[in-house]
Amino acid sequence: MSAPDPGTGAAERSAPCPPPAVRAPPLPAQNTLPPQCLGLEVRGLRVVYGDFVALADTSFRVEPGASFGIVGESGSGKSTVLRAICGLAPLSAGRVQLVTDETSTEALPSPGSKPFRRLVQMVFQDPYGSLHPRQTVDRILSEPLAIHGVKDEQARVERALDEVGLGGGFRFRYPHQLSGGQRQRVALARALILEPQVLLLDEPTSALDASVQAEVLNLLEDLRARLGLTFIMVSHDLAVVTHLCDDILVMQRGQTVERVSAADLAAHRVQEDYTRRLMQASGGFVRVGS
């Protein structure tokens, strides 16, 4: 797995969105989406289940085209953040909104609307559980197109499979006929087929072995660069997060501990004792190239 040179810093890895020409020529669609690169902002997110506060007043902003990581121990609330953004966790307070450059005056879709759900897609942690075992890859990829009323189904399915490095030969296979890495690529294709601007990645490599993890991470880097995507990635693996993300939010017990750049985290330039303990618990965490 290749990693950026830490001397380049986060600025180089936060390159502006590529021009629209980098994308493949768009296919006709019924739902017109904003053409510009989009980011995401959350303010004061709070999720409560009975007497348990799963997420307490979490706020952050991810600029268009950036890659943002959220780390913490199990139960820290990091996955709850993603679920709250896409409407899978009940919000007690706070708001979520898409953001773009300051010069744009175009109204952006609101959370919960169909256009928002098309622009913000989630890739779940477990590729074995997120794909229907009795549906072919073709059916799995065609379903979101049907929900959003998008035509040119065959061309979009084939293009989505090509983008994740599988190809049309996988189109009519069932999940049990795929390896773990291939299943996760199908999960990525399902998220990408609607041409979203923001991807929510819930530990997308944790269920894979080390060699396949590297393949998927390199694929994610390539997709972000080619398609101008904005990433929000949850992981317990600090090496993975510093490899893929520009800035990182550290969480504990549903609360924000600190926000730190990937370069500072790799160099152990952190402020909070909890972050230091988290790094020690990673067991010999060393960023490649440092």
Give a description of the structure.
With 290 residues, the protein is of the alpha/beta class. The protein has a domain at 37-130 and 198-281: Rossmann fold, CATH 3.40.50. It contains ten helices and nine strands. The strands form two sheets. Strands 5-6-7-3-8-9 form a six-stranded mixed sheet, with helices on both faces. The radius of gyration is 19 Å and the shape is globular.
Average pLDDT for all residues = 84
User: What structural class do you assign from the helix and strand content?
Assistant: alpha/beta
Please report the number of helical segments: 10
**CATH architecture grouping of the domain at 37-130 and 198-281:** 3-Layer(aba) Sandwich
- In total, the number of strands is 9
CATH class of the domain at 37-130 and 198-281: Alpha Beta
What characteristic shape results from the CA principal axes? globular
Order of helices and strands: HEEEHEHEHHHEHEHEEHH
| Oligomerization state | single chain
Q: What is shown here, in short?
A:
The chain is of the alpha/beta class.
Per-chain topology:
Elements: H1 9-13, E1 39-49, E2 52-62, E3 67-71, H2 78-85, E4 93-99, H3 114-119, E5 120-123, H4 137-147, H5 153-163, H6 180-192, E6 198-202, H7 210-227, E7 230-234, H8 238-244, E8 247-252, E9 255-261, H9 262-266, H10 273-281
Parallel strand pairs: 3-7, 3-8, 5-6, 6-7
Antiparallel strand pairs: 1-2, 1-4, 8-9
Looking at this protein, list some descriptive labels.
three-stranded antiparallel beta sheet, 32% helix, six-stranded mixed beta sheet, Rossmann fold, alpha/beta, 21% strand, 290 residues, 10 helices
